[in-house]
Amino acid sequence: MKILKFGGTSVGSAKAMRALIAIVGEQIDNGIKPVVVVSAMSGVTDRLLATGRKASEQDKTYLEDINALRQLHFDTARELIADIRQNGLNVILDEYFSELEHVLDGVCRVRELSARTSDTVVSLGERLSATILAAAFQDANRKAMYTDARQIITTNENFGFAGVDEKQTHEKINQYFADHDTLCVVTGFIGSSKQGETTTLGRGGSDYTAAILAAALSAEELEIWTDVDGVMTADPRKVKRAFPLPNLSYEEAMELSHFGAKIIYPPTILPAMRKGIPIIIRNTFNPTHAGTRISKQAEPTGAIIKGISSIDKVALLTIQGSGMIGVTGVSRRLFGALASASANVILISQASSEHSISFAVSPEDAVKAQRAVEQEFELELMAKQVNGVEIENDLSIIAVVGENMKRTPGIAGKLFSAMGSNGINVAAIAQGSSELNISLVTGHKDLTKALNVIHDAFFLSDVHDVHVFVVGTGTIGKTLLQQIIQQHKTLLSEMSLNVRVAGISNSRKMLLDAEGIELLEWENQLNGGEQAAIDKFVQQMIALNLPNSIFVDCTASGDVPAHYQTVLSASIPLVTPNKVACSGEYETYRNLKQTAAKQNTKFLYETNVGAGLPVISTLNDLIKSGDKVTKVEAVLSGTLNFIFNNLSKEVSFSKVVKMAKDQGYSEPDPRIDLSGKDVARKILILARECGTPMEFDEVLIANFLPEHVNKAESMEEFWSELLKADEYFENMRAKLALDQKKLKYVAVFENGKAFTELREVSPANPLYNLEGKDNIVLYTTARYNEQPLIVRGAGAGAEVTAAGVFADIIRIAR
């Protein structure tokens, strides 16, 4: 014999019921004797409860709700069953709804919906669905009968969550099925007290009904049919890549269900476990899938953990005080008071010092739990030996479950490292002595993010999602997006990284999509986006609260860096080639670095100095390893190096500047590069990285342009004056050529001072052979004293700068 339980979605429509009938029919044809247990049609229990509340409030629209429920069930019956058989069924359904109207009329008159009456009202859901389904089996030429569980399940009078009298119930079940050999369609969820009053077994109680039947009848298996392919590694509504588990032990299933896994009602497991009856979770809408098998000994899967479950809303209460330390009986008094108040405790966490105890309850129980505890410890509160009980609301519980966690080192480290790196705060922690479960309490707003982060951290999914938000679609931003497109498959296949661009903004439009923007169409999509506003973009990014988010500023704007503090404070890593923040006021630079450190997040700006070159990271590695930097000497403008390298008798200064602009090596306004201020900002950043609290106006900047060029006010005037300077630069070049020297615009930091200069260098100088648009940085340190450490390579151009930004993104993602 098998017990087959079908949930609300499995009887939620005529189409679903037909699928159910086919599943049961196939088992009968294969020689299996099934018993079918059903829930109410999907959503009906909630609708009945809402209707009852309306009646208690004398809201007459409850009558409209009854009519809507009537219509739903009559329409379903009409679609399922031939006209010739409908009359008898309709009479029964009419009797049910007459009963409902009569009960709710009384509720409306007395203005009260008691727990006893509520059980009577909600029992209609299962009675209706089982009655219709039994008739549908008969219409499909399957002998079947309706079985009211109130005839066979005896409970106490704890209405709403009744306890089962196991001995009497088992006797009734065995007697009933000895007398009835046909297919029974049993109402789940409901029972009756010894006085014959209708009771319910708690929300989800239809599973429990099925388990009671399985245990009483020593069934071969208990199959629970629902709308997913088994017990999932996490809630698929919150974790998109959650997948079904092939098997679980009873203990694992119990832990997962206790902490919110909706697929199975927690009390269901115990009756099956006592009898060693396997529980199979299967999908009514995908019956060929094997589902999840729950048994005494689950087969090893190789995974460290089996699943992650969660309880959406809890309140955390904390009692603390010096009067608790070393005092015997504090825990007994605390939990005795909570039991007396009927406040169910979900999780407990106690400090080793015994100074405080935290416990989680449902939000509805929080206030009464607080009052009960404060009443119990009234004397200690008056003597100030114990503080008042604090309540923290809007919290959730996450439980990480798996038998392989036992004696496996590093589980907690991996768990909390993943949480911390995503800025998710943990309010309380609990671990059972069985090492089967690590539970933690976190903010409800972070629940979905935390579940995805943990799911990825334990490799329950084979791909690690990274959510990138790009501001700036100029040359660098556009190139970065193109590089992400080009490298997407490689990152996916070789590094299991799925880089999703979840937000793009420029000065005109912005677009955010939690599922990821289709990058092949990003320009068209962005054009159809909403009006751009950087403050709104940042706030929406934070509100999305996606795991592994990275903010990328590809602008040269001063407006975007004004929001860096907000981004980092939200524990979102930040990558930027924009030098404004790091070369602005020292206080801003320091605060950003401190915020990143405090939030345990990354603030990477490698491309501020050397485009794609590892200039800052190399410097930081030297300092972290204990080396002392005595001098930094560098050519830090790929643009200026390109200009001076290509200056020749045939190519005048004005012409080579125009070439740099046309080829995208210079800023759109070349005066920014020629002023030397960009180089000054870069050496300032390196000085600050060396630990010197320097401001921009402390950098001495060498101006090499003739005065008449500097005085040009418009771009047109600038180009005109630059032509007049060609002779000046040609004379300079010709003289240097005779001496076999070259011009290099050099930045230096030494002895706490920073400056730039246009330097004449000879062939013996390491700067002499610097070609094209390359940059070079020479670090003279205590270790590299005789020969400086040299970093050299391309230092200008969108490709290398975007590649440097991309490298920082990957560095964070890994």
Topology (elements, then pairings):
Blueprint lengths: L1 E5 L7 H16 L4 E5 L5 H13 L5 H19 L5 H25 L4 H25 L4 E4 L6 E2 L10 H14 L3 E5 L2 E4 L4 E3 L4 H13 L3 E6 L20 E3 H9 L10 H7 L3 E5 L8 E4 L11 E14 L9 H11 L6 E4 L5 E6 L4 H11 L1 H5 L7 E12 L9 H11 L4 E6 L5 E7 L3 H11 L6 E8 L3 H21 L1 E9 L3 E4 L9 H6 L2 E2 L2 H11 L4 E5 L10 H6 L4 E2 L4 H4 L2 H13 L4 E2 L2 H4 L4 H10 L4 E7 L2 H9 L6 H10 L8 H4 L2 H13 L17 H4 L4 H10 L1 H13 L3 E9 L2 E9 L12 E8 L7 E6 L3 H16 L1
Parallel strand pairs: 1-2, 1-8, 2-5, 3-5, 4-6, 8-10, 9-11, 18-19, 18-22, 22-23, 23-24
Antiparallel strand pairs: 6-7, 10-11, 12-14, 12-15, 13-14, 15-17, 16-17, 19-20, 20-21, 25-26, 25-28, 26-27, 28-29
Helix pairs in contact: 1-3, 2-3, 2-4, 2-5, 3-4, 3-5, 4-5, 6-7, 7-9, 10-11, 13-14, 15-30, 23-24
Describe it.
It is a single chain. This protein is an alpha/beta fold. The chain has 30 helices and 29 strands. The strands form five sheets. It has an eight-stranded mixed β-sheet, sandwiched between helices. The chain has a seven-stranded mixed β-sheet with strand order 21-20-19-18-22-23-24, sandwiched between helices. Strands 13-14-12-15-17-16 form a six-stranded antiparallel β-sheet. Helix 7 (205-217) runs parallel beside helix 9. The chain is elongated. It starts with a strand and ends with a helix.
